[in-house]
Design goal:
single chain; Beta-Lactamase; Heat Shock Protein 90; 3 domains; 5-stranded antiparallel sheet; rod-shaped
Length: 465
Amino acid sequence: MNRLLPKWKFQDFSIRRKLALITLLATFLGLFIAVSAFIVVERITFRQNVFRALSVNAEIIGTNSTAALVFDDPKSAGEILSAFQAERHVILAAIYTPQGQIFATYTRKGAAMEFPKNPPLYGDTIKKNTLTMSRPITLDGETVGVLYLKYDLNEMITRFQRYLMIGLGVMGIAGLISFGIASQLQKTISGPILYLAGLTRLVSEKKDYSIRAEKSSKDEIGQLMNGFNEMLEQIQARDRVLRRYQNELEKRVRERTQRLQASLKEKEVLLKEIHHRVKNNLQIISSLLYLQSKHVKNPQILSLFKESQDRIRSMALIHEKLYQSPDMVHVDFAEYIQSLTVYLANSYGALLKNVRIRTKVEDVFLSIDKGIPCGLIVNELVTNALKYAFPNGRKGEIRIHLRRMLDRRIMLMVSDNGVGFPEGLDFQKTDTLGLQLVRNLAQQLNGCLEYLPGKGTRFRITFPA
């Protein structure tokens, strides 16, 4: 429940409310002290007056009662005590003999007759709302009796209650008047402070340091406004310097950026031209090999020409994809393999009547340092499968799989379901140029080349991206 109640803190109040509360509290405190002092002084004075009046009356009654005590005349003593009828606050009065016996009494109408058996010779006692007093009656220095009085203090209590109500009323009226006056006068203090707080908020929101506070007095608040204006002048001066440096810096950055963009554009054009020319030169070499192969009659030598053409074509295709790529640094290998398989399908069309090439390649981008060796490996393994895995028109399938593994390495697998390697053949020790190239290219990739046994032929190469 306590968590739901707001926590009011004096330091969180507005300056206007603080000044009003301080003024109101000071007024109430001053009035409370004044009323309390008045009531205390009045109570002491009233009690002294009551004691003085009762003492005088007791002395008069005692003096008048000596004859009645000496001549043992209770009736005369009772008539003397009846003089207290004029004093309506006296409840009981009694004259005792020196032996402590009641000699004569007086009781206010309606009061209970409660007389002590043996009152003290001299004493004053206040209990609740009554005052009891006892005084000796003497004659020629000899005690002839004791006078006992019981006085009603309700008048004093009533008077003090009335004083308290009047004091509270005065405090309330004075508090309202002081609050109204304070509410008007505090504006001379809170007004400039609130004005300065509004300017501070305006400067913070608009970041306009040209704003100045209008000084309205020469007191501490005026000094505060002078300090505020001087601070804004310093900030404005620094802001102008910073803006000038910022503009100069932005101008230099724009100029440097424009030069870099122009240089980058030139290098991009140059790089595209290099890749394009390399690709064209490789195609020229491939064309020369093709023209030269027209004059070759030996089938084995003709096969070597064709393999060289395929290798050159696989490298030319890398450069073609590079100058077509957005950054000219990385090759989309999925697109590259699709283009390479289309080329090999066209090149070995006669062998592909009963053989299908399937590719499962993720979106992997490789740099030219990784792309050319990887493309040559795919070219060699697919070409070997086309030439040797499916003899005599055998039906089959060649699969190319490329993906990025969890450890961020690249896995390339080329497999077929053909006749496979002859038994006992170690591919690491073969002298064929194709497998030698595959091994050397795998080392160039810092990769691991594995031959996986099973139906057909399966090669797996893993290398860092």
